[in-house]
Design brief:
alpha/beta, 9 helices
Length: 304
């Protein structure tokens, strides 16, 4: 590692997305998405030093990078491939159901795309369409103290029309080298082989994962740490737009984790940050530190 290595609290690796979102009867909206957007901005607003590693196409609006920079996020690891398309999804919410269709796919993140001159307390590996091969995962892992994995992109398969379905995925090469794991409850079932949530959490932990987080929308989350399982409540809100909630949860969780806070508090901050995001409209729906902590303290008191 170079003595001149750039140091970050968090590096988020995965594709940005241009999301076309239809929520019930409202007009369709088009905006940036993906973990490098939601996780990165949330963590930065909570005081973390953040960089993102991603690939985008020539269709990616430069204004989005400027927004990230205005949020104090390092975007020098974002690779622009002019003759490629940015990963794009059409997302449709109807009642409690979400339908997703892949419309474009950016090139994979390869080992040579990973800079050698960085060091991260946490690298959050969060593919959305299988864009991070194992060799890239390995190179990222070597530059980080802690590896966090959101395997959503590994559990997705796409039919000839791009419709997203879930598939089984339990690649031990990844799972055995991850300290923090996060998925939603449906993904957890496909990864663990168990529909029972507690069995799923324990199975994932058996791979050697120290902390397992399963998010459950308005039912909160389940957290496993030190062999214990803790239910994390959701902060009650009226949901306006649920897009990005899980990524926001993890951005907040990691921002607190690097401060050496206990896992329950970290998860309460994650739940609080997600609650603010989903109750608002607009691109920058994120909360700020004071309002996130205020909600987190209320959730923490419910548990303790």
């Amino acid at each position: 590692m170079s003595k001149l290595a750039r140091e970050f609290d968090l590096v988020v690796a995965g594709h940005f997305a241009i999301d076309r979102i239809k929520i019930r009867k409202a007009a369709e909206i088009v905006r940036i998405g993906g973990p490098p957007f939601y996780s990165a901005i949330t963590a930065s607003r909570l005081g973390a030093r953040v960089a993102v590693l991603s690939k985008v196409g020539g269709d990616f609006p430069e204004k989005y990078l400027k927004i990230l920079e205005s949020e104090r996020i390092d975007v020098t690891f974002v690779h622009l491939i002019k003759d490629a398309k940015t990963t794009s999804f059409h997302i449709k919410y109807m009642d409690d159901k979400r339908e997703m269709r892949l419309q474009a796919l950016s090139p994979k993140l390869l080992p040579e795309d990973v800079p050698v001159d960085f060091k991260a307390k946490v690298v959050h590996i969060a593919p959305i369409a299988n864009e991070i091969p194992y060799r890239t995962f390995e190179k990222l892992r070597r530059n980080a103290d802690t590896v966090c994995l959101d395997p959503q992109g590994y559990t997705r398969k796409f039919d000839e029309k791009g419709n997203v379905k879930l598939k089984e995925w339990r690649d031990k090469r990844f799972l055995e080298k991850v300290s923090i794991f996060k998925s939603d409850e449906k993904e957890a079932a496909y990864i663990s082989g168990f529909s029972n949530l507690h069995k799923a959490v324990k199975k994932i932990a058996e791979y050697g994962v120290k902390t397992v987080i399963i998010t459950m929308a308005d039912k909160g989350a389940v957290l496993l740490y030190d062999g214990k399982i803790q239910k994390i409540p959701a902060y009650p809100v009226n949901v306006v737009d649920p897009t990005g909630a899980g990524d926001t949860f993890m951005g907040a969780y990691i921002a607190e984790y690097v401060k050496r806070n206990d896992p329950v508090w970290c998860a309460c901050v994650g739940s609080a940050a997600a609650s603010i995001l989903i109750e608002r409209n607009g691109l920058l729906r994120f909360g700020f530190k004071d309002e996130i902590y205020e909600r987190a303290e209320k959730l923490y008191k419910v548990i303790h």
